[in-house]
Every structure is written in C-alpha cells, then in structure tokens.
C-alpha cells in the first residue's frame, strides 16, 4: 500500500514538473499543466490515480486556502464602498445566462430543469483561475481587481440558493431547518464582515513568540482558516466563503501577515489537486469523439461570457479597456459549476451524455482561458484608452 502511494506521488510529481517546464516555454499558466496531468494519469489512460474522488477532496482544501489568501489581500473598505457594483453585475449575469439558455432550450426542446441547470453553470466563473491571474499580475488591490473579486465572491454566495433550487426542482426538497440554517449562516457571516470593516475584531496574543515559531504559525493559520470554513459549511454555505471571511480578518492587521505567507506552500500543493481532479474526470475517448461540438460550444461560451461581462463592467463605470479585460478574466466556467453538475447528475436531472459534454465544455473553457486572455490583453493594449479609468 505504502509503495503504491510513494510511486503514485513520484510519478505525479515528475509528470507535473515536466509539463510545467514544457508549458512555461509557451507562457502558459501552471493550472493547465495540472489539468493535463490529471488527464494523463487518470483511469482512462495511464491509470496511476485510480480514485478521482480523493483528488477532488484534496482540491477542495486548495480552494479554501486560496480564498483565505485572497481575503487577506483584498481591500475590504474599497469593496464595501463599491458593493453595489459586483452585486448588480452578478444578478444581471444570471438573468442574461437564463435568457440565453431559455432561448437555446426552447429550440432544442430542453426541460425546465435542464434550462435552469445550464443557466446556473454558465453564470459562474472560476475563482481559482481569476484570483491566480490577479495575484500574479499584482492587480488584486486595483479598482478593477477589487470589483472582479467582489463579483466572484457574490457568485460563490449564490451557489447555495442554486443548490437549493436544484434540490427543489428534482423533488428532493430541503428541510425547513436547513433553509433556516443557510439564511442564519449568511446573515451571521455578513454581520461578521460588516464588523470587520468598521474595526479590528481579532487580536492574536503572544505575537513576538509566534513570529519566531514557524510551527505555531502554520497551526494557528489552520485553526483560523479551516475553523471559519467549517462554521460556514455547517450552516450550509460554501466552506470557501468562510475561509474568505477569515482571510479578511487576518488581513486587517499587518502583524498577522505571516499567517497567510506561512500557508502558501500548502496552498500551491492542494490547488494542484483541484485542477488535477478536473483532468481525472475528463473522458478523453468521449472528448475525441465529440471534439467538434465541445470546442464550438466552449469558444461560444468564452465569446458570449466576455461580451456580457464587458458590457456589465462598462455600465457600472469601468473604462472600456478595464471592462474588456474583466470580461476576459471572467469568461471561463468555474469550479462550482462542477459541483452543480455533479449534484444534478446524482439527482437524475441530466443523463450521461449531457453530463460528459458539459464536463468537457467546462474543462475546455478553463484550458482555453489563458489563450483567450492573452488575445484580449494584446487587443486592449493596442487600443487607445477610452472612457473613465
């Protein structure tokens, strides 16, 4: 058992390292290497990793750590002053996604449940991908970065009512107690964030001793990050939302900045498993047999999503250059869309063919997002700045 574990980790590490070194020559982001490694090492090809569920669970830890880090980086006061912008953008996003899917669903004779599911799926962007772009480019504290982060946060919050809606239309109604728990949890965390905006609500004692002790730093970071994630999960909300709230509290105090930094290696490791799990779930034979349909749909999603988001950012006061860039950033389909798709399959709302097509389209938009964003960046930086900055 232990030899299989070590050989699996060794093969995984070598394959990921080789792909990273190869893709770096083409200036591709690391998550592309992780997804390709998942496809290669999965049960459909080399069969090095037999159980995708384990990688998925490890990947969820990576999302929690990422959201914690982003919470520590973001300017909460700026986000609080501009809260209406991301909120309005997300609401219109969902409405326009529903209208697009409704028109398509009527043409293809889809059921109401499938139309609702698909509108939810295409309305969500990838927090993991967008946050990494903003972090590496140093734009996460910019005005555009803060509004974009706000949009992603609003999307993550709205995943909960989306999940409840899918349960409702499938006939697996959530209990009244669960609904009360979700509402109470959302209100409590929002009040917690409101208090965090007004004043520092957490002071860690023994700061000098802790700064000199790396082991203490890691486990204090774990307690705060995963403690808030567990509380959020208990209320029926996304664990990532709780971790984000914990990161915001930590980020208020410069004396606690070591907490976020001490968790960076762990975040990188577990985030790799998140993208690896995406590749593991992809059926390469199905993809090859339906490649034309998948690529056409994926490119259409990138184009339409970019257009919608660009117009929405422009209408909320961003310049055309920033709006087009934000549209490109948010164009791919996100990780929580996998959650909704998997839930819909377990509830019997989609058959296997639609599940595989949708899974392949989501993965393709992620893989193509870096190329698409490169095209957009080259386009906007050749245009003269127009409109409000």
From TrEMBL:
It is found in: Membrane. Its main location: membrane. It comes from the Bacteria. Keywords: Membrane, Transmembrane, Transmembrane helix, Transport. It holds the Pfam family Na_H_Exchanger. Residues 16-376 form the Cation/H+ exchanger transmembrane domain. The keyword Transmembrane applies. It is a multi-pass membrane protein. The chain crosses the membrane at residues 6-23, 30-49, 87-108, 114-134, 146-169, 175-193, 237-252, 264-282, 288-312, 324-347, 353-375. Belongs to the monovalent cation:proton antiporter 2 (CPA2) transporter (TC 2.A.37) family. This is Monovalent cation:H+ antiporter-2, CPA2 family.
């Amino acid at each position: 058992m232990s030899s299989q574990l070590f050989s699996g980790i060794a093969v995984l590490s070598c394959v990921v390292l080789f792909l990273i070194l190869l893709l770096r020559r083409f200036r591709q982001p690391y998550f592309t290497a992780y997804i390709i490694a998942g496809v290669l090492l999965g049960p459909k090809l080399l069969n090095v990793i037999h159980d995708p569920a384990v990688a998925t669970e490890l990947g969820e830890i990576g999302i929690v750590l990422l959201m914690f880090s982003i919470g520590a980086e973001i300017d909460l006061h700026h986000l609080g002053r501009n809260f209406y912008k991301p909120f309005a953008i997300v609401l219109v996003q969902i409405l326009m996604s529903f209208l697009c899917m409704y028109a398509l669903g009527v043409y293809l004779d889809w059921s109401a449940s499938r139309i609702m599911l698909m509108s939810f799926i295409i309305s969500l962007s990838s927090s993991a991908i967008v946050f990494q772009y903003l972090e590496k480019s140093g734009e996460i504290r910019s005005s555009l970065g803060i509004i974009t982060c706000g949009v992603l946060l609003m999307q993550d919050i709205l995943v909960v009512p989306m999940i409840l809606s899918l349960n409702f239309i499938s006939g697996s109604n959530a209990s009244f107690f669960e609904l009360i728990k979700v509402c109470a949890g959302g209100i409590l965390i929002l009040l917690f964030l409101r208090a965090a905006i007004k004043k520092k609500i957490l002071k860690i004692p023994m700061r000098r001793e802790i700064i000199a002790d790396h082991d203490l730093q890691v486990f204090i970071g774990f307690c705060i990050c995963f403690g808030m994630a567990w509380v959020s999960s208990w209320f029926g909300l996304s664990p990532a939302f709780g971790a984000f709230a914990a990161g915001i509290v930590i980020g208020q105090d410069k004396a606690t900045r070591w907490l976020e930094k001490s968790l960076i290696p762990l975040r990188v490791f577990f985030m790799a498993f998140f993208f690896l799990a995406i590749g593991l779930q992809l059926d390469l034979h199905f993809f090859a047999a339906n490649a034309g349909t998948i690529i056409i749909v994926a490119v259409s999603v990138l184009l339409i999503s970019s257009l919608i988001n660009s117009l929405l950012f422009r209408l909320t006061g961003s310049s055309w250059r920033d709006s087009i860039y934000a549209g490109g950033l948010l164009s791919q389909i996100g990780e929580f869309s996998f959650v909704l798709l998997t839930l819909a399959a377990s509830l019997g709302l989609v058959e296997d063919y639609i599940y595989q097509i949708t899974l392949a389209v989501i993965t393709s938009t992620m893989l193509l997002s870096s190329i698409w964003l490169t095209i957009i960046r080259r386009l906007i930086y050749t245009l003269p700045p127009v409109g409000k900055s």
